[in-house]
Amino acid sequence: MPTSARIESSPLYNRDLAPATADRRTWGTYSFAALWVSMSVNILTYMLAASLIQGGMNWKQAVATVFLGNTIVLIPMLLNSHPGARYGIPFPVLARASFGVLGANIAAVLRALVACGWFGIQTWIGGEAINTLIATLAPAWAHVAFGAAICFLAFWLINLAVILKGIEYIRHLQGISAPVLLGVGLLLLAWAYKSAGGFGPMLAAPSRFVTFSDFLKFLIPALNGTVGFWATVSLNIPDFTRFARSQRQQAIGQALALPTTMTLYSLIGILVTSATVVIYGSAIWDPVQLLSHFHSPVAVVISLLAILLATLNVNIGANVVSPANDFSNLWPRKISFRSGGVITCLMGVALMPWKLLSDYGTFIFGWLGGYAAFLGPVTGIMICDYFVIRRRVLVVDDLYLRGGVYEYSRGFNWLAVAALVLGAATALVGLVVPSLRVLYSYSWFVGFAVSFVVYYALMIQQFQGKD
């Protein structure tokens, strides 16, 4: 039987998970730069940076934290990009090399659940924008019971409709959403400049940390959260780089766009939030809530419509592509990309995003830090397996077949699972042992390092023995 026919007849194969063919590898440097511009210029980037100001940092500390965090996460991003560009395979298929052809579902579902949470958060923000928009046009709406929930449901249905249109529809949104949202950010910045009395008062807000020790107590989890912000995509980046024309083009595009765009758009959030301290006496980290303070209905309507458009784009591109593929990996013959997208929508509601956005502490320390404890270990295992254990050599056919190189023990590599459990447990122990809190504060880094070392120690002798 020909190789292609063997793969296509396998229960581990479907068209969405298949290696990208040469005619589909059309993404160049600009494509990857544009991808990161479109994903970075979003409300959650603004809110991440704004939460640092609300937590007590001054503008310089906040900018430095965002830039450092995104420079750090760029490293695993580019490392995991390599196998996607070289072999044309998506993240859940790549995970089969280290976790086994069935064990990969563990890594894929962990990543998918986090994406579902982000999907719910973005959808809640979009619903909040619709709620504020309606209240601006019809003030009586503010008194409607469950108005926010109704708007959340409406935006959820809009997202579902786009998902059912298919992944190609996303590219039509990417080209217009980032410039529009950048315009909203500049509008907010112009308002902040005028209302606060110039950049002087905006930049004069001091750090609220009395001692360097107090600063470190906030900086460590804040930096961890900043890394965790894109730790999700650093795992599933092969879903995009599988379409790259070359390694060089995808690497340059990402390296140029990710840290710079995140830092520059974060700067807008940092400056505007610093201005709200001067204007209102307290930091307002949610731009939708801030817009509700505006007195010009036209400015509010235009800004909220732009936020809706951009939120829809980022939600589909960053939070649906990966989990749709991940859920498809669970049962390739029955779950398509669209079916996986519908599952993502349902899970996004089940994770109650309104609670994850209840305050900046829950957002940074609970949500970002919590899931980083699981994604850091998965990242460490996959990078160790591909670059150190296998030295960048994969048998692509066997990634889609039972009984091949990646079968391990009935489809599961229990050594990878053990490394994952030890890495996550080490990071999470900081939640229950106060003296070890630093382990949780650095959850992504701790999980990555422990799982990387443990996986290497467990695998190297077995792998060399087979050679």
How would you describe this structure in keywords?
Hydantoin permease, mainly alpha, 467 residues
Q: Topology of this structure?
A:
Layout: H1 3-8, H2 29-40, H3 43-54, H4 59-87, H5 91-99, H6 104-137, H7 147-165, H8 168-196, H9 199-204, H10 212-229, H11 231-236, H12 238-241, H13 247-280, H14 287-291, H15 297-319, H16 321-330, H17 337-350, H18 353-356, H19 360-389, H20 414-432, H21 437-441, H22 443-466
Describe it for me?
- This protein has 22 helices and no strands.
- By secondary structure, it is mainly alpha-helical.
- Helix 2 packs across helix 8 (168-196), helix 5 runs antiparallel to helix 6 (104-137) and helix 6 packs across helix 17.
- The mean pLDDT is 85.
- It has one domain: Orthogonal Bundle (Hydantoin permease).
Q: Can you count the helices?
A: 22
Overall average pLDDT? 85
Our measurement of the CA-to-CA distance between the termini, rounded to an integer number of angstroms, reads 28 Å
CATH architecture tag: Orthogonal Bundle
General form: globular
> How many domains in all?
1
Give start-end ranges of low-pLDDT stretches. none
* CATH third-level topology: Hydantoin permease
**SSE series:** HHHHHHHHHHHHHHHHHHHHHH
Strand content: under 5%
**What would CATH call the homologous superfamily?**
Hydantoin permease
Radius of gyration: 22 Å
Name of the CATH first level: Mainly Alpha
Number of strands: 0
